[in-house]
User: Fold this.
Amino acid sequence: MSDVNLYRRLYEQHRDEAPRIYGINAVNNHCFPHFHSSIELVCMHSGCLSALLDGESYDVHAGQVLIVSGYMVHSFRTQKESAETILVIPLFLIPSLKKTLRDNVFSSPVCDTAGNESLRALLELICTSWTTLSIETQIGLGHALLGMLISQVGLSPRCADSRSMGVIKDVLIYLQDHYQSSISMEDLAKRFGYSKSRFSHLFNETLGCPPGTFVNALRCQHAARAMLESDQTLLEISLGAGFECPRTFYRAFKQYYGMTPSQYARAHSDNLSQTTSKAVNTP
Assistant:
């Protein structure tokens, strides 16, 4: 999994409350399902990104923009390689479009920029300069960009959440708050009004993985942060993350990150040391 998504939350409230457009450049992006009210744009530079939006699958290629409307549960994964810039635009930054984008969704989540030089130029400007733009400029460019996208792909009335999607969003929030505790799939299914088999099927169909795999992913993210931010032993970290035993922790961590916990800690400690050294030695 790409480190760029290490601190992503399922309900990204901090994105909705951010004082400016949030941007990040990603390579081989991969993130687990999450949602927010902000508009998220994924501007593809190369390769192909597979996206899951409210249970629907899309492949996004170079020269295209993925538009994630507010409150959509979405996740990304890269099959081979991808490079993209992700822009998250909080609704309060675009007051004249706020109500429109709350009541509607983009008719197509994938926008091809070929043939629209104005849109391409505006995207390039924001993707390369978002860190240096003033708030006033960001607001103006945000309005212009979303206006162009609305003109290009159109808007459709937002349908009321199906019961299943509403439940899944509640489940995501619940798991974010309780993944460190012992979680029984039977109890989890019962809490949300389903049989275990039906709940597992719904979760897997909507989010692309079984509930247990998802919970272990949250625990692995917690453990990865703890390894870099604390002096705890791996046993303490694994138990604190919610794993019942070190063996389960090691197996889940290697499956998720492609390396053992010790390898992860060593690799990221080396990167941190190099970054710190560069910062100290920079005149």
Observations:
- Confidence is low (pLDDT under 50) at residues 1-9, 272-283.
